[in-house]
Amino acid sequence: MNAMTHALIASGMITPLEFVSDAVVLIDEGRIVACGARAAIEVPSGAQLHDFGDALIAPGFIDMHIHGAAGYDVMARSDSGLRTMGQFLARHGVTSFVPTTVTAPTDTIIGALEYLGSRAGIHPDSSDVCAVPIGIHIEGPFLSQARRGVHPPIHIQEPNLATFARFWTASNGAIRVITLAPELTGALELIREAVRLGVRVSMGHSNADYDAAKKAISDGVVHATHTFNAMRPMEHRAPGIAGCVLANRSLTADIIVDGLHVVPPVVDIFLRCKGRELAVLISDATSATGMPDGTYRLGSFEVEVTGLRCESHGKLAGSVLTLDVAVRNVMEFAQWPLADAVRLATLNPARVLGIDDRKGQLKPGYDADIVVLSKHGEVIQTIAGERGI
Q1: If you placed Cys at 138, which of 6, 60, 146, 178 could pair as Cys (CB 3.0 to 4.6 Å)?
Q2: Cα–chain center distance at 49
Q3: So what's the pLDDT on residue 367?
Q4: Strand runs (DSSP E) across 265-306, as ranges?
Q5: Is residue 128 very low, low, confident or very high in pLDDT (cuts 50, 70, 90)?
Q6: Which of 63, 254, 258, 284 is catalytic?
């Protein structure tokens, strides 16, 4: 971006705490300097105007759980692959993402953490608009064997402070989220250490019953990973971890809204329970996302993709979902307006990650991470900091 003020003009703006009609957003040196109704914002003379007509301006999407895309797996340690993935995500409205590891041998995880930690917060070397990795999400190896999904059983471990310390050191402090099964021996100690370090602890791949899940929340768990998938289900006399997630009025929780991992009526129930403040959209995307049907990598093992289904040995193995599709699916499955659906992919994940002081909203002083959407939620243009305009 040239050293000048850019003025984005559109029929509306989703902040996403409010909707503003006939809006303008002023950007200077990769930051939002002003935004609001055009009648209230003075556009500096000499500013470069970008008129998006009847489109809507919203914050860029944040994907806090993603294993890969565009043929690249985040454990592969490739700058060109990470760049290609970032470019693909930007085309789908994502401006920030949290690359997510998968259960593997400890040394393999450590190698991935060293690489991803060195790239966290750094814009890939690209002249094109590109989503930026902003930290690391560790999914495994501290998971339940009974609810492991496709995570390799031979590499699953009980929570171990020494191993977690190695992970933390390897990442150079870039771990933002860890998913674990809170019912396992050693989980409490690991939860407390993660909280001390500022890592958000999410419960998932868990066979916890209701009481164990409730205790985990009091111990420091703040989030739930891909609700309903790879967790003890809810029954009317045994609510389990899923029932605890739905009933808790402070716990944030994410969900894969592709219509396959969770059928539309249950997505609707989830959204009614968690509401606009606590629900988060994730993709759980794999390297197969954006690619033709075929065989792809997820960490150390292969997955087969046919249409929307990504599986390993007959089990769902991540997805080929993108967040823009997830936003539109929320509108369809639950009849939510676009502005509310957008919040689930912007402000809410930013709050979970603890970066809502600079991302997830259209607000003066915030990063100029922006997606321009049609009124139906289709991506028209993405702006990430200094790129895209």
Answers
A1: 178
A2: 31
A3: 97
A4: 279-282, 294-298, 301-306
A5: confident
A6: 284
Task: Report the percentage of the chain scoring pLDDT > 90.
Answer: 92
Is 229 in contact with 151 (CB distance < 8 Å)?
no
Give buried/exposed letters for 71-92 (b at 16+ CB in 10 A, else e): bbbbbbeeeebbbbbbbbbbbb
Our answer to whether residue 284 is catalytic in this structure is yes
Answer whether 0.90 is exceeded by the pTM.
yes
Counting every residue written for the chain, the total comes to 389
- Nearest Cα neighbor of 326 from 149, 94, 7, 15 is 94
Alpha-carbon span 371 to 380, nearest angstrom: 8
Nearest to 186 by CA among 162, 153, 202, 208: 162
The token duo for 306 is: 């046919």
Is it the case that residue 91 has pLDDT exceeding 70? yes
Helix (H) or strand (E) holding 212: helix 210-219
Give yes or no for a contact between 151 and 143, defined as CB atoms under 8 angstroms apart. Answer: yes
- Which distant-in-sequence residues (6+ apart) come within 8 Å of 251 by Cβ? 217, 221, 222, 223, 224, 244, 245, 278
What does the CA dihedral 378, 383, 384, 388 come to, rounded to 10 degrees?
Answer: 120
Cα–Cα distance for residue pair 61/290, rounded to 1 Å: 17
pLDDT at residue 126, as a whole number: 77
Amino acid 3: pLDDT? 64
Q: In whole angstroms, what is the distance from residue 252 CA to residue 140 CA?
A: 20
Which tens digits make up the pLDDT trace of 137-170?
999 999 999 999 999 999 999 999 999 999 999 9
For residue 291, the number of C-alpha atoms closer than 13 Å in the C-beta half-sphere is: 24
Question: 61-66 and 94-101: which strand pairing?
Answer: parallel
Q: Which residues neighbour 383 within 8 Å (Cβ) at sequence distance 6 or greater? A: 8, 27, 60, 95, 129, 368, 369, 370, 371, 372, 389
